[in-house]
Every structure is written in C-alpha cells, then in structure tokens.
Amino acid sequence: MNIHNDAPKEGFAAVAEWMAIDPDNETFVLRRFNDMSARNLLYLQCEILTLRKRFDSFDRKVARIDADMDLKDAAMTWETLLAQNDAGNVDAREYMTLVLELRKKIKDYHETLMLQSNIASLGRPSDRVLEASRTWINGGSKLRADGSKLHPRIGGLAKDYLDDGDDLAAVKSHSDVDLLSRTLRRVWPVKIELVGDGIHRIGRFNEHSISLAVNIISVVVSAILLLGPITALYLVNSNLSRLLMIYAFTACFALSVGVMTNARRIEIFGATAAYAAVLVVFVSNGGLSSS
Fold first, then answer.
1. Which residues form the DUF6594 domain (predicted)?
2. What single-letter DSSP state applies at residue 146?
3. Strand (E) or helix (H) holding 169
4. In the chain, what are the helix, strand and coil shares in percent, each to the nearest 5?
5. pLDDT per residue over 167-190, tens digit each?
6. What 3-state class would DSSP assign to 69?
C-alpha cells in the first residue's frame, strides 16, 4: 500500500507517515509509561492478594471440626464441587466463583508481568534518532522564549511525548552498536529534508547500507590480519623480530575485534588468545624457526 498522497498531511497523519516512511523503523520511538505500568501491576497484585485472603477464609471454614461434610467433600473432590455448584449449594457456588475469578485475574497478572518484561528489554533510542525525531515533530530544534515548541506537528499533551528521554523506547533497536557502525552512521551520506520551520534539516539513510559496509570492512580486515602476519613471519628470520611482530599483530587483532564487533571483554580475550596461539604455532612448526 502506498502511504504517499499528493496533498500534504497534517497532525497525527503527518507524524505517522513520517514514522512509517523510514525503512529501518528507527523513528518508532514511543513512551514506555513505566509509572503507569507499575501502578497497573500493583493494582492487579492487590486484587490477587484480596483473592488469597478470601481463599484463606474459605479454607479455615472447611477445616473447622463442625464444618458441613458436603463442604469438605467439595473442597477435596473437583467433581463433587461441580455437582454441588450445579445443584445450587451456596458454599459450592461461592467457592467456584473464587476459583473462576482467580483463574482470570492470575492470567491477567502474569500476562501483564510478561509484557512488562518485554517492554523493559526494549532499547532506548539513540541520541541521533531522538534528536532527529524531536526536531521534525517539534518543527525545529529550538524553543520559543516561553519554552514552547516552534511549530509542533501535533497538539495537546501528545506534543510533549518525546521530552522525557528516560521513558522512551525504541521499537526497533540496532543490533550493530559497535564503534565502527556508530562512526559510519555519523559520516554516511544522507537524504536531506526540511522540518516545519523551513530552516532546520534532518537526514535519512538506509541502515542496510551501513551493515553492508561494516561486513565488507570486517572481511577485508580479517583477511589482512590473517594473511599479513603469515607472509611477514615467513619472510623474517630473526626470532626477536618475529616475537615483536606477533605482539603487534595480536594487538591489532584485539583492537579490530573491539571496534568492529559487539563482543564482550571475555570474548575479546578468548579470541585474542586463540589468534596469538595460531601465530605462535605457525612460527614454531614447518621449519620456519630460524637456525
């Protein structure tokens, strides 16, 4: 479906079109509402706590010595509970009501808890994306003397939804957050478009091109760091020179892994140790050690 029309859109339609036109979906930046989510979970929790108290009261009633035997049977056997509920027994109906109410509320609580866990795992928008979104939606990067937006695209309370950066979530966060990818995003050629004030500009680019460039650079650097040391160590006869070269190439390898990947420190250490071991084995085997 083509979202573009000849007539320019305004309001929420314009903001939605601007968010949807980004092929990388970086502009899907929205509020988490952490405070409201916490309040909702607390209320659901209180409902279940109330149900637990009612169950405890019913259990004490069943445990009494002089309790009705039909009630005891209903508490012990599910089929008996169903039969007494269908027969109109007041206690059985009360107990069945509690069971069904618990089933619904505990399901709502657990689903909400899992949803909140998913929301908490969403990343925050990058400074670059957040600045571009604020500039476009606010109609400029500056504010009026009274602190209001220059030319906001939407009005009401919604016009300030990007102000609280700590409560924002990026629906799609980048998996490539390494230094090389971040550097390329800052210098990559962009398609320029004006914002509402006609002065400020924002730029767009395709994230796929960044990933492709990073992959190509990574392959080239990997080949250089593998073939380069092998060739150099083969041509050098001095053991001291070879040792210094192993030091240098190992440092370059560790630096490249840290810059071009999202590897953790322990992973960088392990990969570097394996790389250095390969170079040492190459020098010590095959008759390459100096006589």
1. 13-280
2. T
3. strand 168-170
4. 65, 5, 30
5. 999 887 765 667 777 777 777 776
6. helix
Check residue 197 and report its DSSP letter: T
DSSP symbols for 23-68: TT-TT-EEE--HHHHHHHHHHHHHHHHHHHHHHHHHHHHHHSTT--
Match 């476009």 to its residue by tokens: 136
List the beta bridge partners of residue 169.
Answer: 30
The one-letter code for the residue type at 223 is A
Structural domain spans, the chain? 11-32+123-205, 34-121, 209-284
The dihedral of CA 171, 177, 183, 184: what is its sign?
negative
The 10s digit of each residue's pLDDT in 51-82 is 999 999 988 888 886 667 877 888 888 898 89
Pure H helices in 88-145: 90-121, 127-138
76's torsion region: left (phi>0), alpha (psi -120 to 50) or beta?
A: alpha
pLDDT of residue 201: 59
Confidence of residue 113 (pLDDT cuts 50, 70, 90): very high
Q: Above pLDDT 90, what percent of the chain? A: 22
Integer Cα distance of 184 and 209 in angstroms: 10
